[in-house]
């Protein structure tokens, strides 16, 4: 295979290729005054176990992250199968995203959505500009107990659609 020339990549073609990588779906949340704010995020990952760090990427055009950022903390809610409507609601800009969502507050004061696969309570550790996104690194201060939602499976996103894991017994 020849080495590619240094030509600009087509942004839509790049997005299509990246859609071939399955990812989990999270809701990044925070409080703005007494009101919860949040957005759907699929670019979430573990960075370090000592100290416990996680990261997510958010578009610079996000209207939710600039509202959450000043609080210096956020939650990560990992969606489980059957929570597609929550993902869709939080993917939209504006509106009443939390309307009809059952949630509570973490000890750190961040919104936690009920029946998620797991949650993390974080404080902002670092933030970096990267192209049309911000890379946010959070230090994990608390997390869901091991038995939080022990029988769930993750909500996955692949090639522009939601997917679920099949159990080994049905595969």
In short:
This protein has helices at residues 11-18, 65-68, 84-91; strands spanning 23-24, 26-32, 35-41, 44-49, 52-59, 73-78, 103-105, 111-113, 118-130, 133-143, 155-158, 161-164. The protein has 171 residues and is mainly beta.
Task: Write up this protein.
This protein is mainly β. The protein has a single domain (23-147), classed as Pnp Oxidase, Chain A, CATH 2.30.110.10. It is built from three helices and twelve strands, in the order αβββββαβαββββββ. The chain has helices at residues 11-18, 65-68, 84-91; strands at residues 23-24, 26-32, 35-41, 44-49, 52-59, 73-78, 103-105, 111-113, 118-130, 133-143, 155-158, 161-164. The longest helix has 8 residues, at 11-18. The termini are far apart.
Instruction: State the strand order across the main sheet.
Output: 3-2-6-9-10-5-4
Topology-level CATH name? Pnp Oxidase, Chain A
Overall tally of domains: 1
**What portion of the residues fall into strands of 2 or more residues?**
35-45%
Mean of residue pLDDT values: 90
Largest sheet: 7 strands, antiparallel
Low-pLDDT parts are none
CATH hierarchy class name? Mainly Beta
Helix-strand category: mainly beta
SSE succession: HEEEEEHEHEEEEEE
């Amino acid at each position: 295979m020849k080495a590619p020339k240094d030509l600009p990549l087509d942004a839509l073609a790049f997005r299509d290729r990246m859609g071939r990588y399955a990812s989990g779906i999270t809701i990044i949340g925070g409080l703005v005054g007494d009101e919860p704010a949040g957005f759907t995020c699929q670019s979430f990952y573990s960075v370090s176990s000592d100290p416990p760090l996680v990261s997510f990427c958010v578009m610079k055009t996000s209207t939710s992250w600039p509202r959450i950022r000043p609080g210096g903390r956020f939650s990560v809610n990992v969606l489980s199968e059957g929570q597609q409507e929550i993902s869709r609601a939080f993917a939209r800009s504006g509106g009443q995203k939390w309307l009809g969502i059952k949630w509570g507050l973490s000890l750190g004061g961040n919104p936690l959505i009920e029946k998620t696969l797991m949650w993390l309570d974080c404080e902002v550790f670092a933030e970096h500009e990267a192209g049309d996104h911000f890379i946010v690194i959070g230090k994990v201060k608390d997390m869901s107990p091991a038995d939080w939602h022990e029988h769930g499976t993750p909500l996955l996103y692949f090639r522009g659609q939601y997917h679920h894991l099949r159990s080994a017994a049905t595969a």
